What does this fold into?
Amino acid sequence: MTAIRQEAIELLERVPEDKLGFIIQIIQGMNGLYTDTNTEKKEALARLEQLRRKGTVIDDDAELASYREEKYGK
It folds into this structure.
């Protein structure tokens, strides 16, 4: 065990029982800072890819002309 870990344990032993809840919340919050968010980003990207509409338009000019004809009737 490292000296820092040993010092932390000694300090925890001195903390009253009714205050340990606060210490636990602080430590849990710190653990959140060290988690790997890379997997969360990959999962979010995968969800976005599933939602993305895949287009089948090959001729952009023809597609634009058809929209104009629908809208303006020319």
